[in-house]
Design goal:
Layout (H helix, E strand, L loop, with lengths): L2 H5 L2 H31 L4 H33 L1 H10 L3 H14 L9 H39 L1 H24 L3 H21 L11 H20 L1
Amino acid sequence: MNFTKIANSGTMYLLVIAALLLVVLAILYNLKKCYDHALARGVTKERLKKVILSSASFAIVPSLGVVVGLVALVAVIGIPYAWLRLSVLGSVMYELMASNMALCAMGLDAGSADGDAFGLMMWVMCAGITLPLVLNIFMIKPVHMGAMKLGEKDRRWGQLSNSTFLVALLIALVIPIFGSGVVELLTFATSAILGLIIMKLAKRPGLGWLGDFALAFSLIGAMAASVGFDALLK
C-alpha cells in the first residue's frame, strides 16, 4: 500500500477512534471526580452547571483555529492521524516540522513518500512530543522553583527568565521557515501581520470578540495568500 492508502485506511480510523475514546473516558472520569468534589465543598449544582456551560462555549471559539490547522495537516499526514494529533496533543507548526524532518531524512517529499515514510513520520511526531512530557515529570518543578527564587529579590529577573524561554521556543519554530523558501517566508510574514492587525482591532470598543478568532483568521488569510504567492513566484 502507498502512503495515501495507509494514511487514510480503515485501520487508521479504528485505531484513532479507539485512542480518542480513551481520552474522552479519562476526561469524563476527571469531570465526575471534580464535580463530586465541588458538591462536597458546598458549590451548588446551578453554579456548576453555569461553569460547565461557560467553559464549553469558551473552548469552542478557539478550537476554530485548530480546525483550520487540521485542514492544512490533512494534506500531509492524512485525515485520521491529523485528527488524533490535533485532538490530543500537538500543534500544526510542530506536526508539519516533524513530518518534514522525517521525509528529509529519507530523501523524500510528500509526493514520493511511501508506507515506510508514513511510519517514520508517526514515530518522529510521537517521540518528539512524548519525551518532553516524560522529562517534565522530573524537571518542571525544579525549573519552576528556580524561576520563582530568581524573582524573589527582583521580579525583573523572573520575568526575564520566562521571556527567555518563550523567545527560545519561538526561535526554534520560526528559524526553519527562513530557509524554506520565499513563498514560505512570505506566508509566515502574512500570518504575523494579520495576527497583529486583528489583535490591534480587538482592543477597540465592540471588537473584543475578534481576539478569539485571531488564530483562525490569521491561518485562513495566510493560507489564501500562500496560493497567490505560489502562483506568482513558482
